[in-house]
Design goal:
globular; binds cytidine-5'-monophosphate; 43% helix; 8-stranded parallel beta barrel; alpha/beta; TIM Barrel
Length: 230
């Protein structure tokens, strides 16, 4: 993966989304994350529309179901020519194996969500009753995912060095929870700035609200991209 800034298209509707994209120069290469909000409203035709405009697509459906259902869903996604698809590692290793099988023959990279960046140690320990420290838990899930065929994982940038050390330098680490110094954290807990993420070894950053809710969205993207690629 060529170190992209992946923009999370978390908009209320496709009108807002296309208006956002129209601010960028026509030949600008963009990597866009289509998540549940847009996919539930517009489905595959929306994915197709953005692919036809030449954008790279990160289809973030975070699949979490039984192995057979996930494999059959992935067989469909494999025909869509998207660059990245996601699964929740919590669904277990059989699901991952089936997802990989479903995507076989396509160029879609498979990434596993470890622990959502909106969950901190308090939620992990008190709500989910996980006894491991958050970073150890994420590293453990990343190791299992990588050993079972995932191309990479989604984690906080703060966990990237541990994940790479426990698996391989070749694992793709995509990191949301990115907040430039001036931005609000919002619901994200394990956050990093674009330059911190770079130093920590992230292969790509996912940025939503700091760009899509900025007064000048295009400038916000340009500044984040500059800080990340410096
Ligand atoms: O607006 P913000 O920059 O927080 O958006 C982050 C995006 O990354 C959201 O679309 C969210 O669904 C996604 N994401 C995340 N944490 C993960 C996986 C995906 O925040 N572990």
């Amino acid at each position: 993966m060529d170190k992209p800034v992946i923009v999370a298209l978390d908009f209320a509707d496709d009108f807002e989304c296309i208006n956002f994209l129209n601010q960028f120069p026509k030949n600008q290469s963009l990597f866009l994350k289509i998540g549940l909000e847009m996919f539930c409203q517009y489905g595959h035709p929306f994915v197709k529309r953005l692919r036809e405009r030449g954008y790279n697509i990160f289809l973030d459906l975070k699949l979490h179901d039984i192995p057979n259902t996930v494999r059959r869903t992935c067989q469909m996604i494999a025909k869509w020519d998207v660059q990245v698809g996601t699964i929740h590692y919590g669904a277990g290793e059989d699901v991952l194996v089936e997802e990989k099988e479903g995507l076989s023959g396509s160029n879609t990279k498979l990434l596993a969500v470890t622990q959502l960046t909106s969950l901190g140690q308090v939620e992990l320990t008190n709500e989910l009753q996980v006894s491991l420290p958050s970073q150890d838990y994420v590293t453990r899930l990343a190791k299992l995912a990588f050993n079972n065929g995932a191309d990479g994982v989604i984690s906080s940038a703060l966990e990237v060095p541990m994940i790479k050390e426990a698996t391989s330098e070749g694992i793709i680490c995509v990191t949301p929870g990115i907040r430039p110094k001036s931005a609000q954290g919002g619901d994200q807990k394990r956050v990093a700035t674009p330059s911190q993420a770079k130093k920590l070894g992230s292969d790509a950053i996912v940025v939503g609200r700091p760009i899509t809710q900025a007064k000048d969205e295009y400038n916000a993207y340009v500044n984040i991209e500059k800080e990340w690629s410096k």
